[in-house]
Design a protein that fits this description.
By secondary structure, this protein is mainly alpha-helical. 37% of the residues lie in helices and 7% in strands. It has eight helices and six strands; from the N terminus they run ββαβαβαβααααβα. The strands form three sheets. It has a two-stranded antiparallel ribbon. Strands 3-6 form a two-stranded antiparallel sheet. A hairpin with a 2-residue loop joins strand 1 and strand 2. The longest helix is centred in the middle third of the chain and has 12 residues.
Length: 191
């Protein structure tokens, strides 16, 4: 539990071998990361939640190797539409919607997307002062300047995959939303 105003950690759970999983281990974030992608899209681009996006049967035409989003296929069938609002994509947590929008706005410059993630401080170690056998958590946000970068990495990042971030960092990001955009680094005393 994080106090939104101060960033003080008031309680933690999820112990794994006498260590706290959310602070001491990195993992792929999955859908909890989609809020980060949405924030980037809304803050940095001319996007509104009411904007309509073509659904393309859940496939991004430029990336045929990525499996279609079955939710979109069902949405098209049920609603007899070939587009949906950004809001409907967010509400349904559609992988397609986040991949499509991030691709549309950052495929030409994926480093810009990665740089914004770093501006959000998602790549920073957060020290809660907890004693552990672990010195530092490994944080991995792939960058296009590395030879391991693949053309679909940007689409994976958009939905919280192909990266390793401690859950405390994601909690800190959500806390900044509750704090009107002010980032407070988690800390304080665990009670």
């Amino acid at each position: 539990i994080l106090e939104s105003r101060t960033g003080a950690v008031r309680a933690m759970s999820g112990d794994y071998a006498d260590s706290n999983f959310g602070h001491l281990f990195s993992s792929e974030c999955g859908s909890t990361f989609k809020t980060v992608s949405l924030a980037v899209l809304l803050e940095e681009n001319d996007i509104n939640l009411s904007d309509m996006v073509p659904t393309h049967h859940g496939r991004i035409p430029e990336y045929p190797q990525i499996a279609p989003d079955s939710y979109i296929i069902e949405y098209e069938r049920r609603n007899q539409k070939d587009s949906m609002s950004v809001l409907d994509g967010v509400v349904s947590s559609s992988n397609y919607m986040f991949r499509k929008l991030i691709s549309d706005h950052y495929a030409e410059n994926p480093q810009k997307f990665v740089d914004i993630l770093k501006e959000y401080r998602l790549d920073e170690q957060i020290d809660l002062g907890i004693e552990s056998e672990f010195n530092k958590v490994k944080i991995v946000i792939p960058t296009p300047d590395k030879n391991t970068w693949h053309e679909t990495d940007l689409l994976s990042l958009a939905i919280g995959y192909n990266l390793l971030i401690p859950q405390i960092n994601i909690l800190s990001f959500y806390n900044s939303i509750a704090n009107n955009g002010n980032i407070t680094v988690p800390g304080g005393t665990i009670e």
